[in-house]
Amino acid sequence: MSALSPNDRPARWASRARSDTPTLEENADHDLVGASEPSWHPPRVGSKVDRILEMLSTDKGAALEELTRAIGWLPHTPRAALTGLRKRGYDVHLVRGDRETASVYRVTTPAAGDWR
Hints:
Blueprint: H1 11-14, H2 24-31, H3 48-56, H4 64-71, H5 76-87, E1 91-95, E2 104-108
Antiparallel strand pairs: 1-2
């Protein structure tokens, strides 16, 4: 079977004007509306993200391996949860360890009124 040439396309394709399709720039602008503004809302009580937040809120903090074991996720998922916490307005810090200690994450919680 040969490929369709532009002249062989069905009529329904021809009726769709090129200008009706948004450009990549228009899609990107639409997707980024409000993306730089943190949306302060705490995680649902008892959720896995809430458990991660509790672990990070201690003075000791939590290493990525501890988060992975405690929640039962693969390592990339707690990293994504940390990114989500940052987007929510939490101040997540990575404290680099030395050769004997692992790097740990710590978080400070903003006051609920700080974002409005």
